[in-house]
Amino acid sequence: MKLLVTLILALKLISFQRSFCLGKSAIIVAEPSNVINLENTTAYSVFCVLTNASSEENIAHLSIYEKSKHITSEILNATTIVARVNVEQNATCHKKIYSCKANKPEGPQGLALGKIYFGRPPALFPPHDFVCISEHKRHIHCQFPAEIKCDMDTSFKLSTLTRGGFSECNTSADHKSYHWDSRNGSCAFSMEDLSTSFKLVVRNEIDARSILFNVTHEDIVRPAKPNLLTASQGTAKTAKVTWHMSELNLLRQFKYEFRLISVHGVGNLSRFVTVPKMISSYLVEDLIPHTIYTLDVRVQVLPEVLRPFDDLYWSECASVTFKTAAHRPITAPAVAQGAYNIKKRSADQMNVSVFWEPTPDHLHNGTGFGYRVTAVSDSGNRFTKKANLPTYTFSNLSIGHYRIQVSSFNDVGESESYNEMQIFPRNDNCQPQIRSVFKSEGYNVSWFVPEKANPSSYTLMYCHFTSQATCHESTQFVTLPAARTFFVTTQDRALNFAVAAIYPDNHSSELSWQHCVVAPRTSRLAAPKYHVESITADSMTVRMVGRCEEHSYYARMQILVRALDGQLAMNKSYDHFVEEIVVDRLKSSTDYGVNVTVFDGFGKSEHEVTRRTTASSGIWILILVLAAFGTAAMGFIMVVAVRRLKCVLDIKVDVPIGLLEDQEDSVEESEADDHEEYYNLTCPPIPEESEPAAEEIYYSKPASIPEEPAPTEPVITVSQEIPTIGGGRSYIEMTSWKRPPGAGQPDGNGNYEQMHPPNKHSVIVRSTVYVQMNLFINRARTGNYTQTIV
Fold it and tell me: Which of 762, 728, 767 lies closest to 750 in space, CA to CA?
């Protein structure tokens, strides 16, 4: 037995090429080999053999190490020690370095080093990784992966199977695969054959493996690229494309792909057509008018059996560019119920802005694109306008219900249809309000509706922000169910948001716009700010103040009003922000504590307390005011009555000796302490001659006297002569009115006096202002005579 082991070790010494010695005194060998097959080996042995028989080394002092780790060993004979090592389960390819050392007093001394490699035979790749392609049935080339494991030398040998055996093929390699082409003529092959069988042998230091492949020629044909591709006979929605290809006589079906790409990047499509034989033309339909397209065409041969890497068998694409003809707009702009705003409202008129989604450029379908919007009232009145932007404001519409019809047009004509929305008079009880707009890597929008409002859905409108509370472009609508009162989008651009409520009876509210945008990283819930104002004896108003960003965090509000004696006056909660809260049914002259608490969506709360006193009832003040007013009124009435009586008593009448003598009106100014003016009007006799029955004569200043501005002191105007004549029942009526200087007409405050000549022919009027006097003379024989004196 020892002789057999010695013989084996001797053979290992000769064949172990990877071993080497230090000082040539020992070697490291492995059993069964220095290359271990991990698939069928569970243990191996490492030997340290002294090679120099005259060596002074003592076999008992030898040890085996794996790197610096000591391995348990035993003495086999006088020159050899051995270590038994188990192979680790599921081990991967690796290598180990073993050393043989002599234990000396000065420390271990190395005698030999050896490397042992652990690996597996070459792996066989799946059959579908062996790919062969026949280029338009002219030649074949094949490729397969060049996978090398464990850094072991690996060889690949490809052969074709012939009647006489295998014919070896020359292959080329790159970093990932090996290639063979039938044009190099290195092995037996014919394109006329229906199929070809290949054998591949893969070998490394551990073992060798082989695999067979059978290739059917018609199933691996890749057609050539379509040639001379053109587009003709194009209309607004169709185009006919033609091409040339050399015919392939195959017992297979052909599959064509027509891939359209528009210049707008939308409206792209890919269509597949399967035909029993090759074709050279195709009609492309359902195109967008007035659009530039690029059409790609490619073809493949359908195999009888499923093949891997099917995309490899498509031909190269042929391309052509064409443009469809213009057409009137195919589609009308998209609208949404509730997408309107009442901008201004009077007693019977309103201004209304309506919004719709903009039509994309690729759907303009021609030049000169625009929008036509029509408001139709319930009475049938129509108001049609043109617009370039997706919004329009109707001015001075009568308040009421309208149907809004939105269509589009271009230079060819108007769209075939229109979309319709409705607007309704404002109803605050149905109007939703945006609660908050939070922005953090997108937007989170929430809103609420008034109490007892039961909408069926919501219309949310948003657009790129250009100005507050409006949308000019990029308008988009989202319809949300009634149970959802929030909206989330990942868009990062500055946006405007508005929301409207839709009700089951086809009624809708107008849009409610955002007030501010909040960045949660820079804001948080803070104590509420408010003013208590309009304090009366039985009520007060709590008005919330502060910034919109602060109010955005209010998910709930609570107000508690309690008198200092503990009596509760109000305790009410709101599920949204309320700007004004009226507290009534309070007691007069009472101190109240007002506590406003706000909550955010996570239940966190902040509050603020203030103290206010209601006003007194004020009944005694009202009585005193009324008494003072009554006293003042009675005093005023008595003063006026006394002055009127004094004016009557101061009237003086001078009777002339004869009414036939010419007299002059004289005006005398009194020197009374109150600076009043006295006007003395004297009436001369009435002439006998005939005069008009009703004549009015106005006397003005002589031309020689220049016009002067109205003086601040009273002015005395001397009356002109009035021709009169006495007679049996003749009398004179004189009425005077006060008027301010420069007024065109009297102010209506007049005095009336009758003069019966010859007993009474003059009257004195006391006044501190300018007066106008109208003199009416009633003559018994000739009628009335009128004269105005200023």
Answer: 767
CATH number for 340-423 (one of 2.60.40.10, 3.90.79.10, 3.30.70.260, 1.20.140.10): it is: 2.60.40.10
Whose CA is closest to 220, among 277, 317, 141?
A: 141
Q: Does 776 have pLDDT greater than 60?
A: no
Query: How far is it, in rounded angstroms, from Cα 132 to Cα 160?
Result: 13
Dump strand ranges (E) for 245-329. Answer: 254-262, 269-275, 281-284, 292-301, 318-323
Residue 460 has a CB neighbour count (10 Å cut-off) of: 23
Mean pLDDT of 338-348: 91
CB-CB contact of 432 with 512 (8 Å): yes
Place of tokens 């948003």: 462
- What is the tens place of the pLDDT at every residue in 266-290? 767 889 999 999 999 999 998 999 9
C-alpha triplet 189, 195, 197: angle, nearest 5°:
70
Answer for the pair 98, 73: CB distance below 8 angstroms, yes or no. Answer: no
CA distances from 334 to 67, 414, 727 (A): 78, 15, 97
Read off the pLDDT of residues 43-87 as tens digits, 9 standing for 90 and up. Answer: 999 999 988 755 556 788 899 999 889 999 999 998 899 999 998
The amino acid at residue 312 is: L
Is the separation of the CB atoms in 210 and 200 below 8 Å? yes
- CB neighbour class for 110 (10 Å; exposed up to 12, middle 13-18, buried from 19): middle
Q: Check if the beta carbon of residue 646 is closer than 8 Å to that of residue 568.
A: no
pLDDT at 319 over 60: yes
Predicted TM-score (pTM) of this structure: 0.56
How is the chain split into domains, by residue range? 2-119, 127-219, 223-323, 340-423, 436-446+457-513, 529-613, 677-789
For 625-653, letters b (16+ CB in 10 Å) and e give eeeeeeeeeeeeeeeeeeeeeeeeeeeee
How do 107-119 and 35-37 pair as beta strands? parallel
CATH fold of 677-789 reads Immunoglobulin-like (2.60.40)
How far is Cα 659 from Cα 473, in angstroms, rounded to an integer? Answer: 95
Task: Return d(Cα 681, Cα 733) in angstroms, integer.
Answer: 12
C-alpha to C-alpha distance for 599 and 553, rounded to whole angstroms: 8
Nearest to 384 by CA among 403, 364, 398, 412: 403
When pLDDT is cut at 50, 70 and 90, the band that residue 652 belongs to is low
Q: What is the mean pLDDT of residues 586-613?
A: 93
Q: How far apart are CA 293 and CA 268, in angstroms?
A: 9
Quick check: 219 and 305 in contact, CB under 8 A?
yes
- The token pair at 70 is 């000591």
**What's the token pair of residue 16?**
């172990």
Token output for 462: 């948003």
CATH number of 2-119: 2.60.40.10
- Domain 2-119 shares a fold with domain 223-323: yes
One-letter amino acid of 187? C
